[in-house]
Specification:
mainly alpha, Sodium/glucose cotransporter, Na/Glc_symporter_sf, Na/solute_symporter, membrane, symporter activity, ion transport
Length: 484
């Protein structure tokens, strides 16, 4: 696929994206930017949420991971469904009842200012790192397809990419995100379905024979119950999926800002249940695509060094009509830019509301602060992507969940204690507990094979991180009024 055709494809997509963003956000005030004025229809949000949960990481890494882990990722996705139900029926009614703009305001009401700031800062670190990892992937692909052929440096690639994300989110915030995420969902589903169709056709497979070929492949194994020490063990993946969903959606301002834009909590629940079930089938399509890609690569004797390179290498090569490469680029940029845009909006919201504070400030003053923060978040994101490029040495999707295990654990522990325990704690010591918990988890992970007979931690490390935080908060419970 030529660099010029990639540029034309991206330009056409962004022309549509900017138009939708402008129309959706042309009358957005602070409430519209932060929570979409709480007037969004649940079915529109549900359709948008299908795409919002699927980043460029999913788009590229999930098809590539089937050679190593088969369809085992679906074990985690089943956990996602369980976690989403907990969010819908426990957290959503709570957040609506408290009329929150930022979900971390709950921590201030429950514990105090130190826990509030701790939750906001851990979200900031989590989301910034996660968004950088996701956008890093699309930057790598664009570097390969566009910037290297023109002899342009990676830092220019990052600057242009982040600037485009900033441009389409600075005006409308959440209102724009919901409609641009709807465009993303449409592009993702259409692109992956058509790519499956083209590859199956090249392999001379009808729909029935395609399904049987995938089902007969060793790469289509879903459940792993045989080795408790394996990272693929079912209960590790399922529980990690449930708690990851609770932490990375229910306790994440980025994801919850969409759910909180619905008219009421019942509409939000309808949206969440519909979207998570739909996501299961979309991810199944990605895994099916992965099997077909590996079969095609074997037939063509194509060597793939890393799973993340499989889909880009075949889709943008000379193996298929140009439309396949165009579909890949559209799917990639729609997933990656939309995910980065939502993260940038959430980071702006959280930093403005939670860390700088908006209480007592006039509407015009908040607008000025919000716009400056928005620029600052974009700059920090660009720097983080560039640094990650220097340090990257692992699968991108693996990196996302490893980072989540360390950074979302304290947030999960804080909310769990606040909801299920009634006692007050010594608020000023909460930051120490939140820092100590990931440190303990790191020690545990590095020594688990030696200490526990070969046991290897996977993404369930998030659960232990939250548990350490929960135990630490128990130690901070106020015994009596004299200790207040």
């Amino acid at each position: 696929m030529s660099p010029l055709s990639v540029i034309i494809t991206i330009a056409a997509y962004f022309a549509i994206l900017f138009t939708i963003s402008y129309i959706a956000g042309r009358k957005a005030d602070n409430e519209g930017f932060f929570v979409g004025n709480r007037k969004s229809s649940w079915y529109v949000v549900a359709f948008a949420m299908i795409g919002s949960a699927i980043s460029g990481v999913t788009y590229v890494s999930v098809p590539g991971m089937v050679a190593v882990s088969g369809f085992g990722y679906l074990q985690m996705v089943l956990g996602f469904i369980a976690g989403q139900l907990i969010i819908a029926f426990v957290l959503v009614p709570l957040f609506y009842r408290m009329n929150l703009v930022s979900i971390y305001e709950y921590l201030e009401n429950r514990f105090g200012m130190s826990s509030y700031r701790t939750g906001a800062w851990f979200f900031f670190i989590s989301k910034m790192l996660g968004a950088a990892v996701r956008l890093f992937l699309v930057c790598l692909t664009l570097q390969l397809l566009v910037f290297e052929p023109f002899g342009l440096p990676f830092i220019l690639n990052v600057a242009i990419t982040v600037a485009l994300v900033w441009l389409y989110t600075f005006r409308g915030g959440v209102k724009s995100l919901i409609w641009t995420d709807s465009l993303k969902t449409f592009c993702l589903v259409v692109s992956v379905v058509l790519c499956i169709g083209y590859i199956a056709s090249d392999l001379n497979l009808s729909f029935t024979s395609m399904v049987s070929t995938i089902a007969d492949s060793d790469m289509s194994r879903i459940f792993f119950f045989d080795d408790v020490n394996s990272k693929q063990y079912f209960f590790k993946q399922f529980l990690a999926g449930a708690f990851t969903m609770i932490a990375m959606t229910g306790l994440d301002q980025d994801m919850m800002q969409r759910n909180l834009s619905c008219k009421n909590f019942k509409d939000s629940q309808k949206n969440m249940i519909t979207s998570v079930i739909s996501q299961f089938f979309v991810i199944l399509l990605f895994l099916m695509l992965g099997v077909l890609l590996y079969i095609f690569a074997a037939n063509q004797q194509i060597e793939v060094a890393k799973g993340d390179e499989l889909f880009p290498l075949i889709a943008t090569g000379t193996y298929f009509p140009a439309i396949v490469g165009i579909l890949f680029i559209i799917g990639l940029i729609s997933s990656a830019y939309s995910a980065a845009g939502s993260a940038l909006t959430a980071l702006t919201t959280s930093f403005t509301v939670d860390i700088l504070g908006t209480k007592g400030k006039a509407e015009e003053e908040v607008v000025k602060i919000r716009k400056r923060v928005h620029v600052g978040m974009a700059v920090i994101m660009g720097i983080t992507i560039f640094v990650f490029n220097l340090l990257n040495n692992t699968s991108v999707i693996d990196a996302v969940y490893i980072l989540a295990s360390y950074t979302y654990g304290p947030i999960l522990g804080l909310f769990a204690f606040g909801i299920f325990m009634k006692q007050q704690v010594r608020d000023k010591y909460i930051p120490l507990v939140a820092i100590a918990s990931p440190v303990f988890c790191y020690i545990l992970q590095k020594n688990s094979v030696t200490w526990f007979g070969g046991y290897q931690f996977s993404y369930e490390l998030l659960i232990f991180n939250a548990l350490f935080t929960f135990i630490g908060l128990c130690l901070l419970i106020k015994k009596d009024k004299k200790n207040n």
